[in-house]
Amino acid sequence: MKKIGIIGGARIPFARTNSNYKQISNKEMMTAAMKALVQKYNLEGKALGLASVGAVAKSSHDFSMARECLIDAGLSYDTPACDIQMACGTSLETTNHVGNQIAMGQIEAGIAGGVDSSSVVPIELKQKLSNRLVQLSRARNITEKFKLLSSFKPSELIPNFPAIKEPRTGLSMGEHCELMVQEWNISREEQDNLAYQSHKNTVAAYESGFYNDLVFSFGGLDKDNNVRPDSSIEKLGKLRAAFDRNKGTLTAGNSSPMTDGASCVLLANEEYALKNNYDIDAFLTHYQSAAVDYKNKEGLLMAPAYAIPKLLAQAGLTLQDFDFYEIHEAFAGQVLCTLKALNDKNFCQQRLGLDKTLGEIDMSKLNVKGGSVAIGHPFAATGTRIVASLAKALKEKGSGRGLVSICAAGGMGVTAIIER
């Protein structure tokens, strides 16, 4: 088996929905991020083993988005590509997909990435109207066409707008997370404190120059436009509940915002890196996913609490054996629920079948370069954003190990270990 080296990453600044990228498509954003990566590593005109890219909200005309983006970004036409979708875990899954092919010796190097826009969204026709238009295109004469048009109803023109709701419950992700924080007794103060730390860490990372070779200017932005240098516990505490006006604790301040953006990473085996004079930031060593019955038994975003124990068992590690923890902040409450569950005796014994709890983590090691509450969360782009920044943090440290955990819609979770 070949080792999976993370050469490095590139992304465009993440932008709040309906701001800088409000008329820019997924394809344009993904191409911009990939072009930055291509130029960063002098890949113009070169063929790689694979480009694996995904988006959650994707238009039907982007059925081959990965392929089109890699060509526009300057890679050789000889590079194959595929599109993957796994909700918010999409680009961690594309990283695993490319990584597996490297590990198996099927390819030497590849690009993984993800992109999403909540500004430019696919809007569907009513199924009746869609069916009628298909029949109309196949009508053999004027009589058939007139018959079809005469049965048309104006109500059929009302489009179907995408909604961020679980189809089996009708609840939004935020509403599900409200149920979770109530079950786990997570306070508003705890959530606001984590959100404040997310902004504080992101600001510090930008000021130190950490993102200088990871984030590339695009659409009038040089950095993520959701980051609040003036954020404070007091300001966060004044915000109204966003999902449950009566007893809710989730707000716009302690939840990740609707965001547009794209990110990608270059992966390769050691031989390819040596041959091309690339330094390897870190290695992807383990990956695990999990899913839960969120309708009947478990919180929608609790799957990482099931994936992490599987990951640790696979690697022969404890929860404390890490220098960095990158836990995606879909909501500050989700992060806190996951961590509380892993240190809860009943949860670990009854739901995970463990002999004891996994324990606590050192919170000073959590999302040290900022998290999704501050940076933003373009659904499919978050995974490779985290992989690139964690790998660089490990490179700067010189050695160490990082845990990645991402919750995803549909009651799923994806996790990984990155080491140097």
Mean pLDDT: 95
Helix content: 25-40%
Number of alpha- plus pi-helical segments: 14
What is the first-to-last residue Cα distance?
17 Å
Radius of gyration: 22 Å
- Multimerization status: single chain
Beta fraction: 15-25%
Give the CATH architecture of the domain at 173-212 and 285-419. Answer: 3-Layer(aba) Sandwich
Q: Give the name of the CATH superfamily of the domain at 173-212 and 285-419.
A: Thiolase/Chalcone synthase
Categorize the overall geometry. Answer: globular
Q: What's the CATH class label of the domain at 173-212 and 285-419? A: Alpha Beta
E-strand count: 10
The arrangement of helices and strands along the chain is EEHEHEHEHHHHHEHEHEHHHHEE
For the report, how would you describe the main beta sheet? 10 strands, mixed
Write a brief caption for the model.
The chain has 420 residues and is an alpha/beta fold. It has a domain at 173-212 and 285-419: Peroxisomal Thiolase, Chain A, domain 1 (3-Layer(aba) Sandwich).
Report on this model:
There is one protein chain. With 420 residues, the chain is α/β, with parallel strands linked by helices. It has a domain at 173-212 and 285-419: Thiolase/Chalcone synthase (Peroxisomal Thiolase, Chain A, domain 1, 3-Layer(aba) Sandwich). 36% of the residues lie in helices and 16% in strands. The chain has 14 helices and ten strands. It has helices at 26-40, 65-73, 90-103, 127-138, 142-150, 173-183, 188-207, 233-237, 270-275, 304-315, 332-342, 345-351, 372-375, 382-397, and strands at residues 4-11, 15-16, 50-54, 81-83, 109-116, 259-268, 282-291, 324-327, 401-408, 412-419. Strands 1, 2, 3, 4, 5, 6, 7, 8, 9 and 10 form a ten-stranded mixed sheet that branches. Helix 2 (65-73) links the parallel strand 3 and strand 4. Helix 3 crosses helix 14 (382-397) and helix 6 runs parallel beside helix 11 (332-342). The radius of gyration is 22 Å and the shape is globular. The model has no long low-confidence stretch (mean pLDDT 95).
